[in-house]
Design goal:
- The complex is a heterodimer.
- By secondary structure, chain A is mostly beta strands.
- In chain A, the strands form three sheets. In chain A, strands 3, 4, 6, 7, 8, 9, 11 and 12 form an eight-stranded antiparallel beta sheet that branches.
- In chain A, strand 1 and strand 2 form a beta hairpin.
- Chain A starts with a helix and ends in a 9-residue tail after the last strand.
- In chain B, 7% of the residues lie in helices and 47% in strands.
- In chain B, the strands form seven sheets. A five-stranded antiparallel beta sheet of chain B has the order 18-19-20-21-22, with no helix packed on it. Chain B has a four-stranded antiparallel beta sheet with strand order 1-29-28-27, with no helix packed on it. In chain B, strands 2-3-4-5 form a four-stranded antiparallel beta sheet, with no helix packed on it.
- By secondary structure, chain B is mainly beta.
- Chain B is globular.
- Chain B is built from one helix and 29 strands.
- The chains are: A mainly beta, B mainly beta.
- Chains A and B meet through strand 1, strand 2, strand 6, strand 7 and strand 8 of A and strand 2, strand 3, strand 6, strand 7 and strand 8 of B.
């Protein structure tokens, strides 16, 4: 009897999902995603000099399945099943619509063009200070600001540079409000000088452990909160195995 | 009919005046503690306060064609507002505030990288110089005895956290680098290790607090093992801060389907958790009407009341219950100390000292620091 109820619930769930998938399609075709997630804990042995101890780590283990609705004849069909890892606790799936502009065409888990970090009307983004230049040998990242109006960047939403997970959100005197990410290649990214705390900024709603998509997930807003900033811009940094690297290896102006 | 219309118009007019006055009184309700001129060609950037009442103000050279300044001026005033120091710094150097024992901190670097830190006295004499700080952060103990250059997150896997004696400048202790665990990914290749999140020297008896993963330990620089350990605080540690000589605040999170954020207050001497507050985020909304549970803007006043300073100009206060020495999340009061003004992190964040909120505003080419007491 109980097994029969379970089966019915599963069938209803499956058809509801299928219905939602078909009902939400639009004429241009769209990609849909849903995730099956499991909360896992992991015990890690740590070595601190001569001491050994263990610590626990929580993580959300998700598999994202993508479905595609074909355009044209009105015959919808879903397919795919791409495993993606990670997990967005806010939008854990169930058939929510995600329309992806393809901003990572080379599929390296990083935004192709830094132009897509912000979308500012009548302005474009430009590297205002490069990586370890002669004038700024200790500048271990790139500064990106808006042109022709340098102040038009102020308050604009910044989108994630990579596909990965939010690692930390903190304030420092030099970097102002800063968000760091670990991308799915294991590299860490940092964005500094953000306006306000991205955790409490209602236009961003960021939190540690949140899954981000390049050019899609809002991660902060542009400002000049670092100690030597005289105008709104972002400082973008990349670390590979703990060492700073030039972010333009991955992101270009396009 | 005409009289009625006039009466309504009068009421609206009086009401408007009332509103304007109300806004004005809220906006500038703070007690002015310092007013100084912004130097010609410079912009006001930020301010710092010392435990003894000194104020430090930073001005940046304004170059409209650039987004950063190489040249800065910092001015230091004593508790009676006499100027003690006015100094021009160049080549990326900047004033970064006061040590707990009222020395001056200077640093050279940009954004998330510091090439050097110096501690100087009021006469400009260099006391300590620490090169190649990198992306590590400065952490002081409460008394100004120890200075830690602490590596967090993945940086802790590549760089050590080092503690210096502030009086002599000598290295006292170093921890790490702490190796990354062998397995650092889930089966889909997603990285999740959070690494070191708390490294706090206590400043007494060679003690320090270390938070890694979900575990917090009180250890000695020179002793084996640990004095106490909380194996699992309730989630992955986000950050930690010593609130006073008694309490440590730790924020944590669990990335469940309902994302959990939590705050624990721990008596650091014995590792007892005396207060815990948790909230869930679903569809970008917090379930309970609580502030963001981040220790960044968390403070205690002299009566142990807990303050959360919010970016939107509000303060949430949790009253300390003396009878059982804890707080109650249901007894929160909210105050607006700068109505309609968000915290301008780009122009100096508000600071809290002994239950007073200090903030700076620009008025007619001057910088004004005000303070307000939240009752």
């Amino acid at each position: 009897m109980r097994g029969s109820i379970k089966l019915k619930v599963l069938l209803i769930g499956f058809f509801s999902f299928l219905f939602a998938l078909l009902a939400n399609r639009n004429s241009e075709g769209a990609v849909y995603a849903f995730e099956i997630c499991t909360l896992r804990t992991y015990t890690i042995e740590c070595i601190d000099g001569t001491n050994n101890f263990s610590t626990t780590q929580y993580y959300w283990d998700c598999v994202t399945y993508f479905g595609y609705i074909y355009d044209g004849e009105g015959t919808g069909s879903s397919g795919g099943g791409e495993s993606n890892g990670g997990g967005d606790a806010d939008d854990p799936g169930g058939g929510g619509e995600i329309i992806y502009p393809d901003l990572d065409k080379n599929n390296d888990k990083v935004l192709d063009c830094y132009q897509d970090l912000m979308r500012i009307a009548n302005n474009s983004l430009v590297i205002t200070s490069g990586f370890r230049t002669t004038a700024r040998p200790n500048h271990d990242g790139i500064d990106i600001g808006s042109t022709p109006d340098r102040d038009s960047c102020y308050g604009q939403i910044i989108f994630s540079v990579c596909e990965g997970v939010v690692k930390s959100i903190y304030f420092s005197d030099e970097g102002g409000w800063t968000v760091t990410f670990i991308d799915d290649n294991g590299n860490t990214w940092g964005i500094c000088h953000l306006l306000n705390n991205p955790k409490s900024d209602s236009s961003v709603n960021l939190y540690e452990g949140k899954r981000v998509q390049p050019g899609i997930t809002p991660v902060g807003r542009c400002d000049s909160t670092g100690s030597s900033c005289d105008g709104p811009h972002i400082h973008l940094s990349l670390k590979i195995n703990g060492a700073y690297a030039d972010p333009t290896v991955y992101v270009s102006g396009c | 009919m005409k009289n009625k219309f006039l009466a309504y118009a009068l009421l609206i007019f009086i009401g408007s005046i009332g509103l304007i006055n109300f806004s004005f009184s809220q906006h500038s309700g703070g007690e002015e503690i310092l007013r100084c001129e912004i130097p010609q060609g410079f912009i006001y950037k930020s301010f710092y306060l010392s435990s003894s009442g000194m104020k430090g103000i930073i001005f940046l050279q304004h170059q409209p064609d650039r987004l950063y300044s190489d040249l800065s001026i910092f001015e230091v005033f004593d508790a009676d507002n006499n100027m003690l120091l006015s100094k021009v710094l160049d080549s990326g150097w900047g004033f970064r505030g006061f040590t707990p024992d009222n020395k001056l901190i200077l640093s050279k670097g940009q954004a998330d990288y510091l090439s050097e830190i110096k501690i100087i006295d009021m006469q400009g004499k260099e006391l300590i110089s620490i090169p190649e700080v990198g992306s590590r952060r400065l952490v002081f103990d409460l008394y100004g005895r120890d200075l830690a250059v602490a590596a967090f997150d993945y940086d802790a896997a590549y760089l050590p956290s080092v503690v210096y004696d502030l009086a002599s400048g000598k290295e006292k202790f170093r921890l790490g680098p702490v190796p990354l665990p062998k397995s650092n990914k889930n089966k889909e290749g997603n990285f999740y290790w959070t690494g070191t999140r708390i490294f706090l020297p206590i400043g007494k008896d060679n003690l320090f607090l270390w938070g890694i993963g979900a575990t917090i330990l009180l250890q000695k620089y020179d002793g084996p093992g640990y004095i106490w350990k909380i194996n699992d605080i309730g989630g992955n540690i986000s950050e930690g801060k010593l609130l006073n000589e008694e309490y440590l605040a730790v924020s944590y999170f669990v990335p469940e389907r309902k994302y959990k954020e939590g705050l624990a207050i721990i008596r650091w001497r014995d590792g007892q958790i005396v207060f815990r507050m948790e909230n869930y985020i679903v569809n970008n909304k917090r379930e309970k009407n609580l502030p963001v549970l981040s220790v960044d803007m968390l403070h205690l006043d002299e009566n142990n009341n807990l303050f959360f300073l919010q970016d939107d100009g509000r303060v949430h206060k949790f009253h300390f219950k003396k009878e059982n020495k804890t707080w109650d999340e249901n007894l929160m009061t909210t105050h607006e100390y700068r109505l309609g003004k968000t915290i301008a992190a780009g122009k100096g964040r508000p600071q809290v000292i002994k239950g007073h909120i200090y903030y700076a505003e620009e008025e007619d080419g001057q910088v004004v620091i005000r303070r307000i007491k939240i009752n």
